[in-house]
Input
Amino acid sequence: MRSPTATDVARLYSAHEEKHGFKGMLSSIDCMHWEWKNCPVAYKGQYTRGDHKKPTIMLEAMASYDLWIWHAFFGMAVTGFDALKKGTAPSAPFEVNGHQYTKGYYLADDIYPDWATLIKGMSCPTDEPRIKFTRFQASARKDIERAFGVLQG
Output
């Protein structure tokens, strides 16, 4: 696991645009609860939520179409955003509709904050372009779901 280089970013841009139709997309980001089987008794209350019967920790990850997981964080979900906050992504400009952007973006779901680097789907798209975008985004986000399935297996 390593951070992407400028060459990696160019490859990710090209592959995601070709496969999903999203120009400037680096990867999808998501998190899941991972059961902590050997959790110390002293921590069980801190790491058990009402909707999970056993202690869990969060796994946050970014994965691309080829199952390359180039960011992973175990722990409390809030602190996993540090890499995104610091702006450590490599500079990799791209252009969409005549507008120049300096950094790529990640496809995310509604649990993530409203940041320029996180593109979320629309919860209730009403017109055809928004419906189409949401359908394409859901298809592209299957990359991270597939990566989580491989990790769980």
